[in-house]
Predict the 3D structure of the following.
Amino acid sequence: MTTILITGATGNIGMEVLNALTNMSHQSAVYAGVRDIGLDSKKTAKFKVGNIHFDFTDNKTYKPALQNIDILFLLRPPQISNVNLYFKPLIDIAKQLSVKHIVFLSVQGVEKSKIIPHHKIEQLILESKIPYTFLRPAYFMQNFTTTLHDDLVNKKRIYLPAGNSKFTLVDVSDVGEVTAKILTEIKNHVNMSYEVTSNEKLTFSEMAFKLSNGLNRIINYISPGLFSFYLTKRRENIPAALIIVMIMLHYLPRFQKEPQTTNCIKNILKREPKSFDQFITENKTNLC
């Protein structure tokens, strides 16, 4: 039986992957990598999974967690940016223990942005010679229910240094379903890279307009300078490393080629991806 370890299991993506795996027919044994077995097992109880102690910030958990694992689903928690400290030893151990495949959740456009952590992680996986699948999703719609939630709900604004750049979008539930499908049909996706997007490209001004209509309240979009953005977020007690990542994800696209939408979701799931309007409707309670 194939064994699969899901890292970041109790986060937004991890939970969607577990949910999709639970709702589909497959013969794999699925394990959720969790930091606290006692506490986090309550979050994974509704899924058909086992729990394994795994903590990105504690490399002593890497080897026990990867014992007898065939497929590793790997993502990068937003607060972790030191690739050499955390991901290099993890991938080295995966190779030592003969992990057969790594499915890595990267980002769209990673091949053009060598300074972002995801690019370095992809390179480490390539250098390891472990068979891989790179999933490169577009901008998560669910950023509005997480990272951008406070500004949206309490200040009724989107505050990002993105200018008028267009962003491709994707719903996290679609990413989770695509991931689950690939994990359970891994032989069809060896050494492949997929850009996972919806059918839309929007500026944050256009997103603010759609949010305003969907939520029946005015949502303003403000694009500050980098210095103002950094200081504002530091005053909000956002870690400096996370602010830098936010700048890379939102500011750098102003100087890059406009991203393209793809048919990845339709090709793999045999249905259309969710739209931003659908996301707003389904998450209206969390967005207000």
The chain has a mean pLDDT of 95.
